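Exercise 3.2. Students should predict the tertiary structure of the chain below and write it as structure tokens, then compare their answer with the key that follows.

Predict this chain's 3D structure.
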Amino acid sequence: TARSLTTQTNDGQRYRQLVEKNFNKVVLENDLKWGPWDLSKEYTNTTYRMDYTDNALAWLNQRGIAVRGHYVVWGHLEGDGGTEKRKSLPPQAFRSAVMSHAEDKVKMVGQRVAEWDVVNHPLGWGRGMMTDLFGANFYDQMFTQVAKWNPQAVRYINEGGVLPRNGYNRDLYFRLISQMLNRGAKIDGIGFMGHFKGEENLAPPAELLATFDRYAQFGLPLQVTEFDVRFGKEMGKRFQLSPGQEA
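Answer key:
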């Protein structure tokens, strides 16, 4: 979080040293999401405050560490605090709230953020998408608007369920991007959420390479985002070594 980069404590100092030593790009995991962004502007929360965000962005920029903005809008109507808070509004009022928030955020951080997930979870989990309310071209319009608000920012689309073994979104995501590009959407890059939940979810290298080769046909940068491999305590038991056994 931005707070972790700005707190004047021993832990904060150690965190900054680790970031500066090991990373050339940083994502503020939650600070630029709609719900935390609202809290940051209210200055009533101990985790999210606009001065934390401003100071973290300044600290990173001063050291030449690029910042990735996650995210401008969340495509699904569930799973995002700011979206869920307003989704019961009349469609036009809800759309106005989405656009107002997006413009405020993108313009306020300006050039301090080098790239954005313009639309996060554009497919989501089936029904209940912003495109259901605002039309199939809504994502295209978001990319156009972000290009106007910050022409220098690299604009990504970002979705999950593509890289894991037999990814359920693999064909749907490819089709969506094809349709958007054919309509002239200003997509600069394609993000793949790298959530792998257990060893049965890990795709073999050949499968991963085939997936990347397929998406490379678009001629756009490809980026693995949100990378984590989760095993947990129960899964970890399967990998416990016997005495003398080598890893």
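Discussion points: Residues 90 and 133 are 10 Å apart (CA to CA). DSSP finds eleven helices and six strands in the chain.
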